[in-house]
Design a protein that fits this description.
Blueprint (H helix, E strand, L loop, with lengths): L22 H13 L6 H13 L1 H8 L2 H5 L35 H6 L4
Helix pairs in contact: 1-2, 1-3, 2-3
Length: about 120
């Protein structure tokens, strides 16, 4: 559907479940990213370092940047992004983890030309 009334804005929802195999590597990478950020004020830097050192989920959230996901997509300009991470219990065989469960209304997908 590409009428003039159709919005140019698209909400892209992505949910990832990752297994952290090396906590130290994730923490070190997050600390390096913090150290390399010249715009981060000292107090915020100390808070960020403490957060990523205490919680691997925080370290991972610090490393994952939604801009990186779309920066190479032609014709797309990221307008807004938010993300979070949390530790979860995960059983890939459980019906609770059916990725298609959240799809919602297929009409939404067709409006943006996916379906």
């Amino acid at each position: 559907m590409s009428t003039p009334e159709t919005s140019r804005f698209v909400r892209l929802r992505v949910e990832l479940v990752v297994e952290v195999e090396d906590v130290d590597a994730v923490t070190k990478a997050a600390l390096l990213r913090i150290a390399d950020d010249p715009d981060l004020p000292g107090e915020e830097r100390a808070h960020a370092e403490a957060a990523v050192t205490e919680d691997t989920a925080e370290a991972l959230a610090y490393l994952v940047d939604p801009f990186d996901l779309v920066s190479e997509v032609p014709g797309v300009d990221l307008q807004q992004a938010s993300w979070s991470s949390e530790r979860i219990s995960y059983d890939p065989d459980s019906p609770d983890w059916d990725l298609d469960e959240d799809d919602g209304d297929r009409d939404d997908e067709e409006e943006v030309g996916i379906g």
